[in-house]
Structures are given as structure tokens and as C-alpha cells.
Specification:
Blueprint lengths: L1 E9 L7 E9 L3 E6 H7 L5 E3 L4 E5 L1 E6 L15 H18 L2 H13 L2 E8 L5 H6 L3 E8 L7 H16 L6 E7 L7 H14 L3 E5 L3 H9 L3 H10 L8 H6 L7 E5 L5 H9 L3 E4 L1 H6 L7 H6 L4 E3 L12 H11 L5 H20 L14 E5 L10 H8 L5 E4 L2 E2 L1
Parallel strand pairs: 1-4, 1-5, 6-7, 7-8, 8-9, 9-10, 10-11, 11-12, 12-13
Antiparallel strand pairs: 1-2, 2-3, 5-14, 14-15, 15-16
Helix pairs in contact: 5-6, 13-14
């Protein structure tokens, strides 16, 4: 059992609670959390580790959507439009994944740890990121991704998917959790979706899918028109989308931990359906901005009583895998919400909500949650505690310590 004390504890609960001069008692899990005075009284015999002045302890950040396999990209892909980007991904994919070695991905994961990330939801297209993820101290929910829209290929694709999932499941541990990703409504055949989701239900695996990321996707799924039509005609001789948005969503009933990434073009009905499925929305603001997609309407989500979590997406559509960089971008992009309120929302989105998204017992400093937390130091005193969240987001580049499962990693 250990005790650590900081100037501020950011709980990340629904009330945005903060404890001034607080302390946490923990082993693998959080045992107790309270003011320093009260912890001293309750545990008089245990040595306390005191952090510096203006120190903050908060739950570790949870990056709920990242593609590690694209980690070598810096300047190869074309930003500014979704289809232009997609075509550049198809052209450069092999090159980028060849250069994204296990060593490079391990370095990126190490950077993520130093910048406060303690868990990730890794979307894996080929399992090239398997070694790096399972060797990292960061907890990984590893999403084996299914993709393929051609009916005559489904048997082969499904066999390949099952083989990959089986290998990933052989590494299952407390910190490495297999899960299933469906690439998107436009790229996965409904039969393949059905088979993969049957496995998810039977084995109680988390499921995630990209959903309505761009205006082009909206136009294709709703009206079979736009630049997706040219794309699908040229590539697969296809002139009709394989699913409508609501048909697609309806396939995901009875999945325990379900999430949809982006959703920036989702209608109110789509959002309502996502809510009815008890799913969460994953928001990747930098990726949306770089591909010149619509900004997620956070107020619309709130009206549907939908929570969102935060992901960086991959380096295929971002220049950083730091969650603090992502939070700063989100703070600047959503310029119609008061920055103090937004900062509280964002910290919770990146901790508590991301934990719910991935089905983890983490993301909040409270009794019995896993002891995954980060220690940071603010550059100066914060007098008004309602400004803490904003200052944490503005000023944190690297963390002082990253604790995962009670261990300083
Ligand atoms: Zn993605």
C-alpha cells in the first residue's frame, strides 16, 4: 500500500470534483482518496510521498481511438479533403506500414506514456502493431479490424479475420484486451459485419466502428452519389452503397461496449439510435480538421444525452499522438463553448468517458478503480479551482510520472 499527495486532485467524476491538498492510498487499485489531513489520520503508519508545489494528480489519459500501424507517416499523405486523403492512403499504405516497424511503434507508445496516456484503443488493420502494443506498459484494448465489401470475398475475409483474432486472443491479459473493429458502413459487407458481431456477442468483446466521418460518406450512404461513387466504381465496379446509416447501426444491438468514431455527419436520428444502442461517440478533432471534415456538434450530442470520448486517430491524420496536444486542439476548435466548461468536459471525455467506451475500470480517481494516474506540475499557482482544467490542458506537454496499475512506469 502506498500514499501519494499533491496540491490538487482532479477526480474526473460527473460533478468535476477537485480536492485541494489531497492524497491517494493505492496498491493496484485506488483504496482511498481524501484530503491530506484526513488520510494522515486514517493511515498514520504509512509513509507519504509528497509531490511539489502546484502539483496535480489526475486519472491517466485514455486514447480511445488510434491506428499505430500508420505511425511512420509525417508528410506523405494529402490533407484537406477526405477522398483525396483516402486515395493517398491507398497509394502510400504499403510504404507507411513497412516503415512503421515495431521499434518505431514502441517509441511512439513510449512518447504517449510520457505525455500522460495510460490506456489506448488500438485499431489494428493487419496486426503489425501487435508486438509493440503487447510489450508496452500502456493498457491496450486491441481492436482486430474487419474490412471488405465484396460479397464473393466474404468467406476468405472472415477466415482471415478469425485467424487474426485467434492469435490476438492468445495474448489476452489484464492489460491487453482483444476487441473487434468494423471499419465503416461503406467498407464492410453486412454479412461480414453479422458474423464478426456474433463473435463479439458470444465472447463479450468491445466493438468499435468509424461512422459518418465526411460529407462524401454522407452523400454516398444516403444518395449513392458524390466522389465516393467515382471511388467505388473505379476500384470495385460498385455503384450503390452496401448499407444505409440506420440499417448499419441496427446491426449493432446487444453489444456491451460499443463505440462509433467521428459521427460528425450523423443526423439526430442516427445519434438517437447510437444512444439507444448504449454506445459512445469517439471524437478525433485534429483528424476531422486536417481532412477538412465537419466539426463535431457537441451540443447536439448533449441534447441526445450522448457522451463522447477522445482519440487522436493515427499519425495518418494527425501530427501528434499526445492526448494533451489533442485536448488543446479540441479546446481551440470548439470555439462556441466557454473554455472553462469545455475544459472540464474534455478532461472527463479523455478519462472517465474513454474508460466507459473501452469497457475499462479506470478513468476516475475513486475507490476500487484501477490505480492508473498521472502526476503533473503546473508552472505557477492557480488561485481559482474552477480554472484548473483549462490550465492543465494549456500547460501540460509532458507528465512527471505515469502510474499504471499502481506501478510507476
Ligand atoms: Zn480511425
Amino acid at each position: 500500500m502506498q500514499i501519494i499527495s499533491a496540491s490538487w486532485l482532479i477526480i474526473c467524476d460527473k460533478n468535476n470534483s477537485v480536492i485541494k491538498n489531497g492524497a491517494i492510498v493505492y496498491d493496484e487499485k485506488i483504496i482511498d482518496i481524501d484530503t491530506l489531513d484526513s488520510i494522515k489520520n486514517k493511515y498514520p503508519d504509512i509513509k507519504i510521498k509528497y509531490l511539489k508545489e502546484n502539483s496535480v494528480i489526475m486519472p491517466g489519459l485514455i486514447n480511445s481511438h488510434v491506428h499505430m500501424e500508420f505511425s511512420s507517416n509525417t508528410t506523405s499523405l494529402k490533407y484537406g479533403n477526405f477522398i483525396t486523403w483516402l486515395n493517398s492512403v491507398i497509394k502510400e499504405r504499403e510504404n507507411i506500414s513497412l516503415k512503421s516497424t515495431s521499434k518505431l511503434m514502441s517509441n511512439k507508445l513510449n512518447f504517449m506514456k510520457q505525455t500522460g496516456t495510460t490506456s489506448i484503443g488500438a485499431i489494428s488493420s493487419y496486426s503489425y502493431d501487435l508486438q509493440a502494443c503487447k510489450n508496452s506498459p500502456i493498457n491496450t484494448v486491441f481492436f482486430v479490424e474487419a474490412i471488405g465489401s465484396k460479397a464473393d470475398m466474404i468467406d476468405t475475409l472472415f477466415s482471415d479475420f478469425k485467424a487474426r483474432l485467434k492469435e490476438v486472443q492468445s495474448y489476452k491479459s489484464d492489460s491487453f484486451i482483444p476487441a473487434i473493429a468494423i471499419h465503416s458502413p461503406y467498407s464492410v459487407h453486412p454479412f461480414l459485419i453479422r458474423e464478426c458481431l456474433n463473435i463479439a456477442k458470444k465472447e463479450n468483446l468491445a466493438v468499435s466502428s468509424h461512422f459518418l466521418e465526411s460529407p462524401e460518406e454522407y452523400e454516398w450512404l444516403h444518395n449513392n452519389k458524390g466522389s465516393f461513387l467515382t471511388f467505388f466504381k473505379n476500384l470495385f465496379g460498385q455503384n450503390k452503397a452496401i448499407s444505409k446509416p440506420l440499417e448499419f447501426l441496427n446491426q449493432f444491438k446487444n453489444i456491451k461496449n460499443l463505440s462509433f468514431t467521428h459521427c460528425v455527419e450523423a443526423s439526430k436520428n442516427d445519434l438517437k439510435q447510437i444512444k439507444d444502442l448504449n454506445a459512445t461517440v469517439i471524437h478525433c478533432p485534429t483528424s476531422n480538421r486536417l481532412l477538412n471534415n465537419t466539426k463535431l456538434n457537441i451540443k447536439n450530442l448533449k441534447n441526445c444525452d450522448l457522451n463522447f470520448s477522445i482519440g487522436t486517430d493515427g499519425l495518418s491524420s494527425n501530427n501528434s499522438l499526445s492526448m494533451f496536444d489533442e485536448l488543446r486542439n479540441a479546446l481551440m476548435i470548439h470555439d462556441n463553448i466557454n473554455p472553462n466548461d469545455l475544459s472540464n468536459t474534455l478532461l472527463k471525455a479523455a478519462t472517465k468517458n474513454s474508460a466507459i467506451t473501452l469497457g475499462l475500470n479506470k478513468g476516475e480517481l475513486s475507490h476500487n478503480k484501477d490505480a492508473d494516474f498521472i502526476c503533473i506540475t503546473l508552472p505557477n499557482i492557480v488561485e481559482d479551482k474552477s480554472l484548473l482544467a483549462l490550465n492543465i490542458i494549456l500547460h501540460t506537454k509532458y507528465v512527471d510520472d505515469t502510474i499504471i496499475g499502481g506501478k510507476n512506469v
